[in-house]
Amino acid sequence: MILKKATYYLLLIILFVGGSLHAQEEYIVNHSKFMQKSNPSYFGFNSLNKVGVLYNSMKLNEYDRLDNKYFFGALTFEDQGFSLGVDINSFKIQTTGLTSNLANLSYIYKLQFDNNTFFLPAVTVGFGSSSVNPANLIFEDQLDTSTGFINSESIDPLAPIISNVNYFDLGASFILHSDKYMAGLSFKHLNRPNTSYNKEVPFEKPIQVSLQGAYEFDLNPYERRFLPRYSYLYAYGSFTKYGDALQIYLSQDFQLGEFSIGLSQQAASLNSFSLNNVGVSIGLAVENFDFGILYNFPFQSPGIVYSPSIFELFITFDFSVYRRNKRGQYNRLQVDNYY
Q1: Which long-range contacts (CB under 8 A, 24 or more apart) does 334-338 make?
Q2: Which of 142, 158, 162, 159 is closest to 150 using CA atoms?
């Protein structure tokens, strides 16, 4: 019993101090289809009006899971040349009572360089909150090693302090793209918000810098019969630096008509470099809807980086009145809706 509770206590320390307050924003695994999580300028991509919901579940250990819910919406004001994007991310760990929420509002401006090249600068304002139920926590002075019991009360001075924290967050981002390639740069936590539960010991989020890039290949330019008429390979990658941590994400999405299958790889470095996860996703496009499911297979590397298994499910809807007629193309990097 003590071992089980101590494991939860250790997990909470890792969540508080080890940087998972950052991770609460990055639990979305399918970066290529939810790129606005890495770069909010993506809300203005191709001037699309879209909404979507996503749910994923992360196995933290044999006792507990983290449930994550995400919603986004994008609205374009074409005559004024800008778009607005909003997204809300919430996760909860039942055993510890840890709940975190983050809501962002993004303003994206559109600049056209030539017939097929567009530049999307954006600013983002976010509000975050995080709370924990102290009654679910086990402090060191509650563990009686001589008897093997856990005392019901703690005299640790932190016990009455730990409850909740609220903060504002500021960011900026940029995307340059055509109907063939995309390049992005984003900055988060520019104001370095203090997310510490104990204000006497501040924990300021480091500024996060991320680079993204993508290229799309036409796999069937000559309309061979062994592939669907509209078949594409969308190759995407991102490189993120957050404090002392580095993260690399790569994905390869094969769009074969209305069906898609994708592979993803995530690697991280914090003292040492390791491959964390390999993911497999499948998707289906039905008129204005996109459905997808993804599973991440963990690479357990004791003493290096913990890599949990993650299950993810999402649905998105595109409000474009032309989507149903043009859907047969299925390519991701489009510029037709800007006009």
Answers
A1: 334/46, 334/179, 335/46, 335/116, 335/118, 335/177, 335/178, 335/179, 336/46, 337/46, 337/47, 337/48, 338/46, 338/47, 338/110, 338/112, 338/118
A2: 142
- Low-confidence residues of the chain, pLDDT below 50? 1-24, 139-150, 152, 154-155, 302-304
Task: Label residue 97 left, alpha or beta by phi (over 0 means left) and psi (-120 to 50 means alpha).
Answer: left
> Where do the DSSP E strands lie in 137-270?
143-144, 149-150, 164-177, 181-188, 208-218, 231-242, 245-256, 259-269
Cα 104 to Cα 125: distance, rounded to the nearest angstrom: 6
Q: What is the pLDDT of residue 132?
A: 73
Rounded Cα distance between 135 and 8, Å, is 13
Give the C-alpha separation, 274 to 156, whole Å: 37
Separation CA 278–CA 267 (nearest Å) = 9
Find the distance separating the first CA and the last CA of the chain, reported in whole Å: 64
| Burial track 238-251 (b if 16+ CB lie within 10 A, e otherwise) | bebebeebebbbbb
**CA 315 to chain centroid:** 15
* CATH number of the 2-338 domain: 2.40.160.40
Q: What are phi and psi of 136, to 5 degrees?
A: -90, -5
